[in-house]
Amino acid sequence: MKHRLPIGLAAAGLCLALAVLWWFVVPSEASDEAGIGKAVLRYGHSAVWALLAVSALLVALGAPRRAHQATAVAAGVVYAAFVAALVF
To answer: Which residue among 20, 35, 56, 72 is the one 20 to 30 A from 49 at the CA level?
Structure first.
């Protein structure tokens, strides 16, 4: 793909910016939790965006499909854990 590098780098930069944002913006439910639930609520959303940034960077650099898909799937798993901790 001709524009893979600039688009991938832009996406990685955006995802990284969101990871930093969510590092400081914490759901109020995190204060009510303890243990692993608190950690997932505190750091989960930021971790999702960091993993998506890595995935976008891997796409930009032309890494094997398996590598960027694995990080994207990991982001989905972390997000599912985050939502479960938020809801339950």
So the answer is: 35
